[in-house]
Amino acid sequence: MTVLQQHLRNLNQAPASGLAASNRLSALPPLTPADDLSLNAPGKALQPKLAAETAGPAARLLARLLRRPAAGDSWRKGATGERRVGAELDRLQCQGWRVLHSIPLPRGVDLDHLLIGPGGVFSINTKHHPKQAIWVGDDAVKVEHGTPRPYPRKSRAEAQRVQRVLERYCGFAVPVEPVLVFVGVTDLKVVATQLAVRVYREREVAALAPLSGVWSVDQVEQIYGVARHRQAWLEA
């Protein structure tokens, strides 16, 4: 029995009280096409930002000549990374996994991808750093030996946020594992010791496909039914 399976067993055998009991009472309205997040394409949440901030052709050419970033470059790069990772995740659907992209969260942020299947639930954060070397520690990431970025810490917080939403409507414990996926990098060095966040290159996410023994087919569909409903995330 894996650590995750034992954790689930302990939680499900514990007496229901307090928040756990109230979670079971939460219900969502019937799903409508407007609230169905399964229709979202990877990177959809970034499209309004791209439309608002993208520079015109002349400005982009000037920025390229001056070797400076043009307006909207960071959003464009992020959307490209999400599309590439999304394509890899979509391949897992034939093996019993469910995938959602660009889940909108309060305060103008979004969850890049959510993977739900027989091997667990995974909140996936995509980072596109083309032609750069990445160093990953327990709480920070360095790009080309630069200033530490709090990617792992934020990924853990994001997974906890997702877990709270799913448990509120599923009525049972739904552990969520955080995943960082790096796109287009030249080198990826992981020195983390806590192993609290899974780290992959974009084409390595297929390593999640063989995982099993956590959820039944019916449980996968129940969790997915909650996750795909836009209304579930309004107070995430």
Structural account:
The protein is of the alpha/beta class. It has one domain. It has seven helices and eight strands. It has helices spanning 3-13, 18-23, 47-53, 57-65, 73-90, 151-170, 217-227, and strands at 98-105, 109-117, 120-128, 133-136, 141-143, 176-183, 187-190, 198-201. The strands form two sheets. Strands 1-2-3-6-8 form a five-stranded mixed β-sheet. Strands 5-4-7 form a three-stranded mixed β-sheet, with no helix packed on it. Helix 6 (151-170) packs across helix 7. It is globular, with a radius of gyration of 19 Å. 32% of the residues are buried.
What is this entry, summarized?
It contains 7 helices and 8 strands. It is an alpha/beta fold.
| SS-derived structural category | alpha/beta
- Let me know the average pLDDT: 85
Kindly give the count of domains: 1
Kindly estimate the percentage of residues that lie in beta strands according to DSSP.
Answer: 15-25%
The largest sheet is: 5 strands, mixed
Q: Ends: how far apart?
A: 31 Å
Strand order of the largest sheet: 1-2-3-6-8
DSSP summary, beta strand count: 8
Number of helices: 7
